[in-house]
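Figure S4 source data
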Amino acid sequence: MDSLRIRHRFRSHLLGPLTAACTLFAAAVPALAQTANAPPVEPEPGMWAFDGELNGKPGRSLQIDMQNGRAMIVSYLGYRGDGSAVFLQASGLRATDSSAFQGTLQEFRNGPAIGIGGSASAGELAANTGPIQITFDSATTGTVTLPGDVPRRISRFHYEEYPIRFSNQFAVYGNFDRFVGAIVPVTLDIKAENGVFTMQYIHTGTAQCNFNGTYRLAGGGLQSEGKVACNSSLAGPADGTYRIESLTVSRTGMVTGRLYMLRDLQLYARVDFAGACLNSRGAVFAAGGRPGCGAADLGLQP
């Protein structure tokens, strides 16, 4: 996999507000670690596969779509006992505080058919197959229970290699609002190669953290976890762990991600960030900016 590096700097004029904000954050951490609940998981839309069933041959899958955080449609593509194909679908609203989905799988018939002139006839309900329940433990992993079946692990299907998109710098805003009441402009630069992930970021020029761990591609993004060591409480824990979820880079160069830092298994900080890819080979503008990434930077040229 192509290499990635992550590095970011806080602008010097934010030092005063950031220092005060971090003092408030440090005081709030103990109570936060005891009372904060993880928000409901938002699954990544797309094709999901059954773990252990991927062998390169036609199999079964789930197509999951979600809009506005609650409405969800789940389509099951599989087979009957006689080997013929079957399409089932369930829909509904998730509870606002839940990472689970429950619905009834339904089978349909007499809808538009291929090769008969594009009939506009509407399908009709054929049968209610039974209940389906999905519990998501991350944006790309979960457990599904189908009618009459045991719980089975599922994962967002990953089929495209695009690590070159991560091999760039990014101008982003980091959202520290939950802890310090600040949204801070930073520059990111990541390194990941052969399953090994390393990252360094710098706060206020001297406070910095070093991240060392592993990574994997999951669905449309990258996930990483490992150890973090910081030389200042302004940056993070002196000896802790980290987890990066759903680090994604779109084909237009927009980056998003979420970083957790933990100390003694308690949440120390959470940072949500979003921004745009920077062309590291482009000229620097007079005002200090750089042009955005092009197709070559994002691996989109043939």
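Figure S5 source data
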Amino acid sequence: MMVMTKKNVALLVVGMILLVAGIAVAEPLALPTLGSLGMGKSAKPGETAVVIQILFLMTVLSLAPALLIMTTSFTRIVVVLSFLRNAMGTQQAPSNQIIIGLSLFITFFIMTPVWQQVNTQALEPFKAQTISQEQALERGIAPIRKFMLSQVREKDLALFISLSKQARPKNAEDVPTLTIIPAFIISELRTAFQIGFLIYIPFLVLDMVVASVLMSMGMMMLPPAMISLPFKILLFVLVDGWGLVIGSLVKSFG
């Protein structure tokens, strides 16, 4: 009885293989193929312009992360949060992913009014075909320039104007955008370092107090950071540190 069962199973398996093979032969599997790629002559000048626009758009998309970082409030926020983590001495808590994610969402919160102006003044009219592409670009960059000029220091702006060897601009509208961006980044880094210095002070005082107590008790071999870390976390929680830091960051943009 057992031998018959094995034979039946073997015949069933062979029959299924033959059935599948027959179906495969009767209906061959259609595999996608890649068409030929090449370069030919353009019959119309408009086709060349469209290709150039596509290449320009792809270049802009590849530079989008850098533009998001360098022309928004992201730089100041992420530097300050990094200083905060180092001052507390919590190593990788919060992690880099959390700091970058929090910085991005705070950036979206701060930059929303600016992006709404870009959408209202440039994107929507361009989609409705009421303005040209050049007008949309000019209108879209105006709110971003206004935001950067409101945060940049005159000293930093004057530095890059002098380095570019351009004529002294009569007003802010005459300053090129490529001159405003590096001046804005330098100003953001300076402000972030100032805020980071203020954040370091209370934690540094706590480290000094703990180190003095340990030395007075004769525990010179015990690292002060190991003892001060719980007190830093407790102090930060009691004073609502996250609310103070984030609130100060948002308010620092006016």
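Residues 11 and 17 are 10 Å apart (CA to CA). The chain has a mean pLDDT of 77.
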